Amino acid sequence: MVIRLLIWWVVLAAALGLAAALLDSVTIKGGLLSLLGVSLIFALVNLLLGPILRLISLPLTVITLGLFSLVVNGVLLAITAGLSDNLDVGGFFGVIVAALVISVIEAVLGFLVGKLIPAAS
Questions:
Q1: 90: burial class by Cβ within 10 Å (0-12, 13-18, 19+)?
Q2: Do the Cβ atoms of 20 and 28 come closer than 8 Å?
Q3: What would you measure as the largest C-alpha separation in the chain, in angstroms?
Q4: How far is CA 74 from the centre of its chain?
Q5: Contact status, residue 97 vs residue 25, Cβ threshold 8 Å
Q6: Would the pTM count as exceeding 0.90?
Q7: Following DSSP, what letter does each residue of 34-58 receive, concatenated?
Q8: Do residues 101 and 19 lie in contact, with contact meaning Cβ atoms separated by under 8 Å?
Q9: What are the residue boundaries of the structural domains of the chain, listed by start?
């Protein structure tokens, strides 16, 4: 159980790091420890506020056929940037693009980790 959490934490950190490397609007100050700290804050924000925001935005998500979930993920990323001194994100569109990139990278890495380590899925 703990190993699964650590694996998913590293996957999230890798997704954030790749998003910061690919996008000019996302900047993570510091080294590996800062990246792990930002990913931990993002995971906690997603755990605590994510279900509430997804429930509140459910009608808009249904109307837009799921596209509004990118806005919700962007809001969660912006909240994380507000809570952390090590993460800077751009304006509204920068946050939305960053949320899309992080979601895609996390899905791909999660799929690969699930295939390589069956107990991690």
A1: middle
A2: yes
A3: 41
A4: 9
A5: yes
A6: no
A7: HHHHHHHHHHHHHHHTHHHHHHHTH
A8: yes
A9: 2-120
